[in-house]
Write a structure and sequence with these properties.
Layout: H1 2-30, E1 32-40, H2 49-53, E2 55-60, E3 63-68, E4 71-80, E5 87-92, E6 100-107, E7 110-116, E8 132-139
Antiparallel strand pairs: 1-2, 1-8, 2-3, 3-4, 4-5, 5-6, 6-7, 7-8
């Protein structure tokens, strides 16, 4: 019986370590500067070309700074790349309360994400409609 418990505990430790490696490897893909390609707001409106040109994102580890015109937003995020649809939770400022829950995908130098309004359930697919925020970014080389 003790051997079974030890095997189960060690298996859990190995799975947790593997999941941690997945997160660290995936976070490396987020690192750097990004330019906006597309954006749909919670109000259902599509960002104009000028708004996209004035928007940028910089990621370092799990911290980000997003600039849109004169507005600067800082925060942190957590990801789970082991889910069938990869998940991301965004926290603004120093807080960990009421995250913006979303999904994301990175293909080469393009990343897309979709978020539900804070307090709502995570989206189950990419939506470009009211009550969801859709963002697409290209990594600046």
């Amino acid at each position: 019986m003790h051997r079974l418990i030890i095997v189960l505990v060690l298996s859990g430790v190995c799975l947790t370590a593997h999941a941690g490696d997945d997160v660290q490897n995936e976070l490396k893909k987020f690192h750097g500067k990004w330019e906006a390609l597309a954006a749909h707001g919670f109000d259902g409106k599509v960002a104009t070309d000028v708004e996209l040109q004035l928007s940028s994102l910089e990621v370092d580890g799990d911290k980000f700074t997003m600039k849109t015109g004169s507005l600067t937003i800082k925060g942190t995020f957590s990801i789970d790349p082991t889910k069938k649809i990869k998940t991301i939770d965004v926290y603004f400022g120093d807080g960990k309360d009421n995250p913006m829950r979303g999904i994301y995908e990175i293909n080469g130098d393009v990343r897309k994400s979709c978020f539900a309004k804070p307090g709502n359930a995570r989206p189950d697919k990419y939506r470009k409609e009211k009550d969801f925020m859709y963002l697409e970014w290209r990594q600046v080389k």
